[in-house]
Write a structure and sequence with these properties.
The complex is a heterodimer of chains A (109) and B (115). By secondary structure, chain A is mostly beta strands. Chain A has no helices and eleven strands. In chain A, the strands form two sheets. In chain A, strands 2, 4, 5, 6, 9, 10 and 11 form a seven-stranded mixed sheet that branches. Chain A has a four-stranded antiparallel sheet with strand order 1-3-8-7, with no helix packed on it. Chain A starts with a strand and ends with a strand. Chain B is an all-beta fold and 115 residues long. Chain B has a six-stranded mixed sheet, with no helix packed on it. A four-stranded antiparallel sheet of chain B has the order 1-3-8-7, with no helix packed on it. The radius of gyration of chain B is 13 Å and the shape is globular. The chains are: A mainly beta (109), B mainly beta (115). Chains A and B meet through strand 4, strand 5, strand 9 and strand 10 of A and strand 5 of B.
């Protein structure tokens, strides 16, 4: 089974920009992996932020965007706010099965 | 309100069985593939299983293959996860997840496997 990797933790200043990435042990991440990004705050269920690489949910703030960057999926947060402090998970499709990354703990400080 | 509501979690002994249910409401359940995802205490998310809308294709994580069975009843707008031969490492919150359409997560149901 493939392994999906994420930065364990990142810190961003309020109003700053940060990029979280998601890599695959099988090679470059492509649109065919249908990358998803989920946000989870303590004590809450996750919620979907980005699907199919770059598509936003209706509740996804405009400051979040998804892309492919250097063979990895990327989630960019531009103009970080305190409420963006959370765990972020990516997930990739492998032609049927899905695999989550280990998550990135984002601190806004 | 569009939502997914899980039920059926609880405390079970190692080797035991449990059946989780997920009730969908306010959307056309039969139009979408469905998924189970779990999260062990203090750990990350783990995809468990997926089922296509007609149940024609089913996938399992290696960690549960041969022990868990996913199924659905489109007439009842419900998703199920039959869990057999449970182990301590299956202890987790189990989420019912819709990845397409409304893209919803349920609130989760806790399964604890302990003597």
């Amino acid at each position: 089974q493939a392994v999906v990797t994420q930065e364990p933790s990142l810190t961003v200043s309020p109003g700053g920009t940060v990029t979280l990435t998601c890599g695959s042990s099988t090679g470059a991440v492509t649109s065919g992996h249908y990358p998803y990004w989920f946000q989870q705050k303590p004590g809450q269920a996750p919620r979907t932020l980005i699907y199919d690489t770059s598509n936003k949910h209706s509740w996804t703030p405009a400051r979040f965007s998804g892309s492919l960057l250097g063979g990895r999926a990327a989630l960019t947060l531009s103009g970080a706010q305190s409420e963006d402090e959370a765990e972020y998970y990516c997930m990739l499709s492998y032609s049927g099965p899905w695999v989550f990354g280990g998550g990135t703990k984002l601190t806004v400080l | 309100e569009v939502q997914l509501v899980e039920s059926g979690g609880g405390l079970v002994k190692p080797g035991g069985s449990l059946r989780l249910s997920c009730a969908a409401s306010a959307f056309t359940f039969s139009n979408y593939a469905m998924n189970w995802v779990r999260q062990a205490p203090g750990r990350g998310l783990e995809w468990v299983s997926s089922i296509t809308r007609s149940s024609s294709d089913i996938y399992y994580a290696d960690s549960v293959k041969g022990r868990f069975t996913i199924s659905r009843d489109n007439a009842k707008s419900s998703l199920y996860l039959q869990m057999n031969s449970l182990r301590a490492e299956d202890t987790a919150v189990y989420y019912c997840v819709l990845l397409s359409g409304p893209k919803l997560w349920g609130q989760g149901t806790l399964v604890t496997v302990s003597p």
